[in-house]
């Protein structure tokens, strides 16, 4: 630790006591306070394989994952409280409009909403008969009223897309033209123009608010389009991962500069994975503004997490040094002073970058 190098030479006994105090703190699950720009593990009081996160503000957040794991924080991720008894299904989708109102969804038709910060949960009204199982994979709200829920059914061979226009109380089928593979990720640049990504490497676009969709293959057939982000109406990015990796598979960052008419694979944009060989899954992408953004993912074979950041609108990406952790999947951003980044993943990975 550089700042203490000269100090410990002059006061070796004090330095030894300080070191023992730090070791005791770590042994009792005390959060390690680092420099403001350093990534740090957070919330060690709950455990799980976390698949998604949603932070509506800098203090309040929810994380969800496998086997019904769900937890809430009210102090910016320093501590979490487990929410139990709702389901044993995997929860893949979580979206909170505010500290009070939010939604969670996952496997086998599991879909709940809360209006009091997770104290009580109810089923929203879905105005269509969903196949069983319907496995939800994505939730997205363009504003406080208009939102979408993405899912797959029949072992992921067909899609379900639901839309709400009243803040999530009622949901209606909205997947005309989405005719292959499970729907995973959703993004709208305005109330009319939006995108849905799924498995089989397909991306779908709507120009009428989700009434109709048209699709094109932009990635390999065993690939999943895991996350969307746009810095303006024309310039966008898609992160990719591999459903069942085989030798020779490569994930990539897809880019468009013409509002999704064409998508280009840019494997060279992402630096080489620094922690061993294997396929790097790019799980999620989000931007604070037109310049500053983050990608999270990790090595599939090694189950090691990684994060990347850009400060020039995605022209270049640099590795963010994170604590040793499982593959990172969920990503939430909160703009402020300073900006805060929350990411979660497998093997109880919960990391805050601020």
Give a quick rundown of the structure.
With 354 residues, the chain is mainly beta. It is built from two helices and 28 strands.
Q: What is the tally of helical segments? A: 2
The chain-level mean pLDDT equals: 84
| Low-pLDDT sequence parts | 1-38
- The outline comes out as globular
Estimated structural class: mainly beta
Physical arrangement of strands within the biggest beta sheet? 9-13-12-11-10
Order of helix and strand elements from N to C terminus = HHEEEEEEEEEEEEEEEEEEEEEEEEEEEE
Largest sheet: 5 strands, mixed
CATH superfamily: YVTN repeat-like/Quinoprotein amine dehydrogenase
Quickly count the domains.
Answer: 1
What is the terminal separation in angstroms?
Answer: 20 Å
Query: Remind me, CATH topology?
Result: Methylamine Dehydrogenase, Chain H
Task: Supply the CATH class.
Answer: Mainly Beta
Number of strands: 28
Percent range for helical residues? under 10%
CATH architecture: 7 Propeller
Our estimate of the beta-strand percent is 35-45%
The gyration radius over C-alpha positions equals 21 Å
């Amino acid at each position: 630790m550089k700042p203490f190098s000269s100090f410990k030479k002059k006061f070796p006994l004090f330095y030894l006591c300080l070191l023992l105090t730090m070791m005791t703190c770590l042994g009792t699950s005390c959060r390690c306070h680092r420099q403001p720009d350093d990534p740090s593990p957070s919330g060690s009081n709950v455990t799980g394989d976390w698949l998604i996160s949603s932070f509506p503000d800098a203090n309040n957040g929810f994380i969800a994952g496998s086997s019904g794991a769900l937890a809430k924080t009210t102090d910016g991720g320093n501590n979490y409280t487990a929410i139990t008894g709702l389901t044993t299904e995997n929860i893949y989708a979580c979206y909170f409009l505010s500290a009070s109102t939010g939604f969670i969804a996952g496997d086998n038709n599991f879909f709940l909403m809360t209006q009091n910060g997770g104290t009580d949960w109810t089923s929203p009204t879905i105005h269509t008969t969903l196949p069983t199982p319907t496995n939800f994979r994505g939730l997205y709200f363009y504003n406080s009223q208009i939102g979408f829920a993405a899912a797959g059914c029949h072992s992921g061979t067909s899609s379900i897309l639901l839309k709400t226009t009243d803040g999530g109380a009622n949901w209606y089928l909205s997947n005309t033209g989405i005719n292959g593979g499970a729907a995973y990720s959703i993004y709208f640049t305005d109330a009319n123009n939006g995108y849905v990504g799924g498995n089989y490497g397909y991306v779908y676009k709507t120009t009428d608010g989700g009434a109709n969709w048209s699709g094109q293959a932009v990635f390999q057939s065993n690939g999943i389009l895991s996350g969307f982000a746009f810095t303006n109406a024309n310039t966008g990015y898609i992160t990719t991962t591999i459903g069942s990796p085989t030798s020779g598979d490569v994930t990539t960052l897809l880019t468009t500069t013409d509002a999704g008419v064409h998508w280009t694979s840019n494997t060279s944009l992402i630096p080489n994975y620094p922690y061993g060989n294997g396929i790097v899954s790019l799980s999620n992408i989000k931007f604070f503004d037109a310049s500053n953004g983050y990608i999270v993912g990790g090595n599939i074979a090694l189950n090691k997490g990684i994060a990347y950041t850009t400060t020039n609108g995605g022209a270049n990406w640099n590795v963010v040094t994170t604590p040793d952790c499982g593959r990172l999947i969920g990503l939430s951003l909160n703009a402020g002073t300073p900006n805060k980044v929350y990411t979660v993943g497998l093997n109880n990975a919960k990391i805050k970058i601020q």
